[in-house]
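Notes to self, Arylsulfatase:
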Amino acid sequence: MKKIMAGVVLAAAVAAVCSFMPRKAPAPNVVIIFMDDMGYGDPASYGGGPYKTPNLDRMAAHGMRFTHFYAAQAVCSASRAGLLTGCYPNRIGIHGALFPASPTALSNEEETIAELLKAKGYSTGMVGKWHLGSKPPFLPLQNGFDEYLGLPYSNDMWPVDYDGKPITDTANRRGKLPPLPLIEGNNTLRIIKTLEDQSELTSLYTERACNFIWAHKKQPFFLYMAHSMPHVPIAVSPKFKGKSGAGLFGDLMEELDASIGAVLKTLEETGLDKNTLVIFTSDNGPWLNFGNHAGNTGGLREGKGTSFEGGQRVPCIMQWPGQIPAGTITNAIASTIDILPTVANICGAKMPAKKIDGLNILSLLKQEKGANPRDHFVYYYGTNNLEAIRKGKYKLVFPHKGRTYKNNLPGYDGFPGAQPSITVPLALYDLSRDPGETLDVQQQFPEVVKELEALADQYRQTLGDDLKNMKGTERREPGRVAMN
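result:
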C-alpha cells in the first residue's frame, strides 16, 4: 500500500512539474500572397484608390508595411525564381518571362521554400500562376508542393486578342500560342478560353486556398498563393463588376482585396491567425502601357520591365501577431530573395546546400534595435545585364538600353500603347530625396559613384554582366526542357 501511495505521490509531483514546464510552441504556418503586376502605389495604404482595399489596410495596421521592398527582378519568371529560391535570378539561369515553349525552366537542382519546409514536416500547397516551367518535371509538384491548382504561365499567353476574341490572323505571333490550361497537380483540368473564364480565376484560387488551410489546420503548412492578376487581361467576377466606382481595374483591386480578406478570415476561424506569418507582395511593377487596365507606381519612375524604381520596388506587408509589432513601417531595404532565409530560420528548416543571395530579415521584422540586414541591392535585367546598384540611399544607374512608358500615350480598355526602347545614361540618384529618379547627382558625389562602381564590380566577377561582357564565376544552369 505504501508503495502504491508513493507511486501516486511521485506521479502527482511529476505532473505538477510538467504543468509548469514551458510547452514547445507549435511550428508557425507561412502564407505568401504574391500579386502579378501590382504597382507600388496600388494598395490604399500606399496611396491607391479611389477603390478600397480594407483587408490590406487591416494587414498594415496589424503588421509591418515596407516602403523600400524589391522584387528580385522586374519581370514575371525571374521574379518568381528569386522569391522561391532566395537567389538573384541570373545566378540560377532564369531571366525574362518564360513562354509555353521555352527550352528552359527552374532547375530541379535548386531548392525552393516548399522543399525546405516539406523536409521539415510541413504540408505545402500552391494556387495560382507558376511560370517556372510549363510541363513535368518542372511544375510545382516536382518543386516541393504537395498540391497545385493554377495556370502554368501568364494569363495573356493564349491565342486570344486584346478584345477577348480568338486570334484568326495567322501572321499574329500570339495566335500561335497553345490554349491556356488550368492545371491541377500535373494535369490539365480545363481550358481557359474566354475573358468570362478568366473572371473565375480569382474566386477559384481563393476557394482552393481557404480549403487548403482548413484541411491542414492541425499540422504546420506553407501556402503559396500567386494570383494571375492584375496582370492583363483583367477580368472580375459578376459579384464585383461595377461595384468600385473606379472602373474595371478598381473592381479587380476590390476583388483581390476580398480574396486576401477571405484567407485572413479562414486563418482566424481555424484559430491559426496568431501562429501564421502572412506575407503580401508583388512580382514587379505595373505594365503602364495598358493605361486604365494597369496600376500605378505611386510616383516612382517607369514600370514593369525596367530597373527604375517603378519597375522593381513593390508593395509589401507582413503580418505575424505577437512577433511583428502592429502598425509598423520600415524604410529599410529588403527583397523577395530575403523571404526564403527568413522563413527557413523561423520554421527551423535547413538552408539550401547551394549559395543563395537572400538575407535573414527576422531582426528587422521584430524591430530589433539597429536592425538593417540588407544595406545594398543589385538590379539585373535582360539575360544578365547589371543595370543599377543601390547602397543605402544612393542608387547608381549604369548605361543600358531599356523600355520607357513616357514617350507615348498608353492604351485603354485592354489594349496596349507603345513601350519603345531608349538609351539610359549613367546617373546617380539620392532616393531619400528623389524617389522619382529625376535629379542626377553624380557630379556632386563622385566618391559615392566610385564606391558603388567598386561594389558592382564584385557582382560582375561572380554573377557576370552582359553589359561588360563578363560571364561571372558563380552562375548555375537552368533546367532544360525536352522539346517535342
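- The chain has eleven helices and 20 strands.
- Confidence is low (pLDDT under 50) at residues 1-6, 13-19.
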